[in-house]
Amino acid sequence: MTKANKGIYAASLTPVGPDGEPDGHKLARYCRWNLEQGLDGVAPLGTTGEGNSLPLSFRTALPAIFAEAGFKPSEVIFGTGACATGDAIAATKAATDAGFFNVLVLPPFYFKNVSDEGLFAYYARLIEGVGDDRLRVYLYHFPQMSMTPISIDLIQRLKRAFGPLIAGLKDSSGDFGGTLEFVDAADDFDVFPSNESVLLEGLGKGCAGVISATTNASAALARATLSSAGEEAAALQETLTAVRVAISRHPLSAALKQIEAWRTGDDSWLPVFAPQVGLTQEQKQQLRQDLEALEPASGVLSRGRAAA
C-alpha cells in the first residue's frame, strides 16, 4: 500500500538559506516539527512552498533529503507538476527513487484553453515515463492560479486508464460544492480541499482531509479540532476558521513565513522567492493584531517552536 494518509496536511513552506537558495535540510526539520504538532502529512513544493519558483535541481534533490531524515512514504506528498512533461517526470522519478510514491501534479499551466485530450496526454506521459506501479498521482485543481482546470470527465478517463495510480485530487478552487462533485467522480479517489474551514464538514461528506497553506501555522489547533466532538469541536472549528481568515487576508507564503519568524525568533524565515515579496510593515501589523486577538484559543503564536 503506497497511498498517502488521509487527514490534515500542510502545504509546506520552503525556507531560504544564507546563500539565497532553498534550504532542503531546514525544510525537512520544519516538516518533522509540523508532524509532531499533529499533522497527518506534509506537502512540500506546492504553491505555498513556492515550488514553481524553485530550480528543478532542488526539486529533484529534496526527496533524498526526506528519505535520509526518516519520513514515511505515506506522510509526504511532493509537488512535481511542471509545464514541461520531462521536468514533471524528472521530479516525480526523484520522489519514487527515494521511496516516496505520492505526488501532487499541477497540469501544464503555460498554455491556456487546452483540451482534456492534451491534459490526458500529459498525465499519461508522466505515468508512463515514471514506469512504477507504486506511483500515486494526486491531481491539482487550482484554476485561479493555473488557468487550467481539471474536469470530472478527465478524472474519470484517467481512472479508467490507470486505476489506482490516479489516487486523488487537491481542490484549491475554493468552491466547496465543486469539491463534493469531485468526491463523487470516482471510487478510490481521495479529495482534499485546501481550506480547513471545511475540515469537519468535508470529512462528514466524504473528503479525505485537507491540504492547506494555513495549517502550517495551526497544525495543533487543527488536530485538536479533529480529535474533539460536539460543541467543543464546533468551537474549535470556529477558531480554526478565524485563523484561516486572518492569514488569508495577506499573501500566504509571506504571511506564513512571518508567523514562523515570530514563533521562532528566526528572521531567516522571512525571505520569499521572486517574484513574490515580503509583507509590508502595515500588513505585518494587521496580521499580528488579528492573530493576537485569537490568542490564547488558537495557540498560533505560542504553541511550540519550529525547528531552526
From TrEMBL:
Organism of this sequence: Hoeflea poritis
Pfam families: DHDPS (PF00701)
Protein name: Dihydrodipicolinate synthase family protein
Keyword ATP-binding assigned: no
UniProt keyword list: Lyase
InterPro entries: Aldolase_TIM, DapA-like
Native organism taxonomy: Bacteria, Pseudomonadati, Pseudomonadota, Alphaproteobacteria, Hyphomicrobiales
Family according to the record: Belongs to the DapA family.
Superkingdom field: Bacteria
